[in-house]
Amino acid sequence: MDFVLTEEMVLNDLINTCNQYFGFKVLDATPIKRGWLNLKWKITTNSGVFLIKQYNKERYKLYNHEELLLAFSQQMRLHNSGLPCPKLYTHEGQFLIESEKGELFMLMDYCNGTVIPPGKLNVHQMYDLGRVTGYMHHLLNDGTLGVKKRPEFIPPSREERLTHWESVWNHANNTDKSHLLPILETQYKVTEAINLGDFKLNETGWAHRDLWVDNLLFEEKKISAVLDFDRMKYDYPQLDVARAVISGALNEDNFNVSLVQAFIEGYSEQRLLEKGFIITSLKMLWFMESTWWINSSMDQHSGPPERFAKEMLWLSENHKELESMLENI
């Protein structure tokens, strides 16, 4: 049976390792309670302020080690090219450092800024998020990484997805979740109406793949840092756009079109977009993510999954209205 370290024991282990490898003295450590399972601390030292991110052993099993290392190397390339994201530190050339007690962790600069709740960004922040996202996509797809044969997300056929929603409906119906049935019926109807040919599946590229407000820091009128590149892979950059837009512009049931417009204006400084791009991107985001968050146990969601489910619900309920809402963007 593995011995499980307490958070305090993990922190002391990481501090001792940092002291040994980087030679600084830790004066203060403050836990950062964000993210799933991985532990984070802001550490103040005699050499500056840093962030330590420990990788939970169970969650780490979900990652591909080589893909993580690629993501870290690209984060440093983006940082060195002026994108606002944390500088990473290496020990003996490695971004992922192993502590004395076998914990995997990273050391990076601590970035100042505020995490803004979903739907609460102002127009200046949204514009700058668009600009920075466009610049990130430009750098990631400048040819340095090349292209891959297949993106991460392979859309299933309409028939496969309809079968999925039938199965979820039946499970909810058989487990006394009748209050969820109208929601699931809406997903089925929207799936029937979806045209996969509209999704521009040839527009693949490298993307962040987790671009929502919890992974962003802001100052009053601009973005101060893009965080957490762990999921960066070859996929669809348009899904980054849709995820950032729905995260920043949807406040409860109010989708602020002026914020969408600001994001697209900022993004278009870096990459030209066709009219209607955001409509297609939001529909594709729903097609990919709806099955992740809308299910027969969604009434038990809390935290980020609850927010993501609300976004998917809003997109399904307003599927037909997206064209009229966003026709001028």
TrEMBL record:
Residues 29-268 form the Aminoglycoside phosphotransferase domain. Keywords: Kinase, Transferase. Coiled coil: none annotated. Transmembrane segments: none annotated. GO terms for molecular function: amino acid kinase activity. Gene3D superfamilies: 3.90.1200.10, Phosphorylase Kinase, domain 1 (3.30.200.20). It comes from the Bacteria. It holds the Pfam family APH. Belongs to the pseudomonas-type ThrB family. This is Homoserine kinase. The lineage of its organism: Bacteria, Bacillati, Bacillota, Bacilli, Bacillales.
